[in-house]
Automatic annotation (TrEMBL):
Protein name: Coenzyme A biosynthesis bifunctional protein CoaBC
Gene: coaBC
GO molecular function: FMN binding; metal ion binding; phosphopantothenate--cysteine ligase activity; phosphopantothenoylcysteine decarboxylase activity
Function: Catalyzes two steps in the biosynthesis of coenzyme A. In the first step cysteine is conjugated to 4'-phosphopantothenate to form 4-phosphopantothenoylcysteine, in the latter compound is decarboxylated to form 4'-phosphopantotheine.
Region feature (Phosphopantothenate--cysteine ligase): 15-227
Length: 227
């Protein structure tokens, strides 16, 4: 179906979406990151816009074009993503965290490029944990018009068990799960929705089709909550 025929189920709603990986510097030319093309998050942003929402996309480094009509804020690190979310969250009806956020950052990134040594040694890198952006927003129930929070989880095994547990741990009403790494960068995916009623499988389809189905599921849930 083309965009013009998408029902405007999110007209008047504001959605904040995170997408892509984050990049945590080791020094000015190196860093650690997560595998994520950003395709799923960008598809969700596009589908939400088609559904009439006012969409802000906070994106880690990707090679993707901004979906039409979407406001995009670029960030590199998890902390920058957290700060950008904090600056944009007020007045949002829905927060969808699709980003593959690096769980750790380098404690003391070097301001100059680290040089190789003659003795074949390698640097020891120390890490500390990044803020959990989704859990932070989900826990902030005092936010004016607390947003409906949706998480994503890519698991490499035990999706049914881990997905349900992760939804509860994050304190969110809806979690979207998929079985990990082979979908990274791919154009299609197969996802499972976890909510307080159990789980629903959305069969394999391209990411835009799945994103449109997800937006329809989100709109049903927030409209029944009369946000
Ligand atoms: N997430 C986030 N901030 C983080 C880590 C994760 O906002 N620092 C969000 C992701 O965008 C995703 C959800 O939390 O929507 C689940 O991410 P995931 O990495 O699967 O969960 P973790 O809690 O980090 O658990 P683990 O990686 O150990 O499985
Ligand atoms: Ca993680």
């Amino acid at each position: 179906i083309v965009a013009a025929f998408q029902p405007k189920v999110l007209a008047g709603k504001r959605l904040l979406i995170t997408a892509g990986p984050t990049f945590e510097p080791i020094d000015p030319v190196r860093g650690i990151t997560n595998l994520s093309s950003g395709k799923m998050g960008y598809a969700v942003a596009r589908a939400a816009r088609e559904a009439g929402a006012d969409v802000t996309l906070i994106s880690g480094p990707t090679a993707l074009a901004t979906p039409h009509g979407v406001t995009r804020i670029d960030v590199q690190t998890a902390q920058q993503m957290m700060d950008a979310v904090n600056r944009s969250i007020d007045g949002q009806h829905v927060f969808v965290a699709v980003a593959a956020v690096a769980d750790w950052r380098v404690t003391n990134p070097s301001t100059q490029k680290v040089k190789k040594t003659e003795d074949g040694g390698a640097p020891r890198i120390e890490f500390e944990q990044n803020p959990d952006i989704l859990a932070t927003i989900a826990a902030r129930t005092t936010l004016a018009g607390h947003p409906y929070c949706v998480g994503f989880a890519a698991e490499s095994e035990n999706l049914m068990e881990y997905g349900a547990a992760k939804r509860e741990r994050k304190g969110i009403p809806l979690l979207v799960g998929n079985i990990g790494h082979h979908t990274f960068g791919a154009d299609d995916n197969e996802i499972v929705l976890f909510d307080d009623q159990g789980h629903t499988l959305l069969p394999r389809a391209d990411k835009l089709t799945l994103a449109r189905q997800l937006i329809s599921e989100i709109s049903k849930r927030i409209n029944s909550q009369s946000l």
